[in-house]
Specification:
Bound molecules: calcium ion
Shape: elongated
Strand order of the largest sheet: 1-2
Number of strands: 2
Number of domains: 2
Strand content: 5-15%
Length: 117
């Protein structure tokens, strides 16, 4: 099969972490990162999907509680988090405010603390 150049087709080294050890996770510098189909669901970290089986997850979200990125931490961010917890809707890594790998009431309490501080 012949592949022709076109939008979304890249020829660069995907920069897997370690092919010999079957680690097909992407390095931070991989050209595959955020090069996936933008129509697809976002990655766990809220970024555009990556090419390949394993997405590169950007762990560096500032856990300021501003989940909807409007510059303020307020009740709207709690609403976002409640939607995530109740409906598993658009949860991203940054929603795990206390970094315990779960989305639950503790994260809501963390946001409440940020708001009232
Ligand atoms: Ca991504
Ligand atoms: Ca906000
Ligand atoms: Ca949590």
């Amino acid at each position: 099969m012949e592949l022709s150049p076109g939008a979304g087709i890249i020829y660069q080294d995907p920069q897997f972490i370690n092919v010999e050890q079957f680690n097909f996770n992407l390095l931070e510098t991989s050209p595959c990162i955020n090069s996936g189909n933008p129509q697809q669901n976002l990655d766990y970290d809220g970024s555009i999907s990556d090419i390949g089986a394993n997405p590169f997850i950007n762990e560096s979200c500032n856990n300021s509680g501003d989940l909807n990125n409007d510059g303020n931490t307020n009740v709207l961010d709690i609403v976002e988090l409640v939607n995530c917890i109740l409906f598993n809707n658009e949860c991203t890594l940054c929603f795990d405010i206390n970094n315990d790998q779960e989305y639950n009431i503790l994260d809501i309490l963390n946001i409440v603390n940020i708001i009232i501080e």
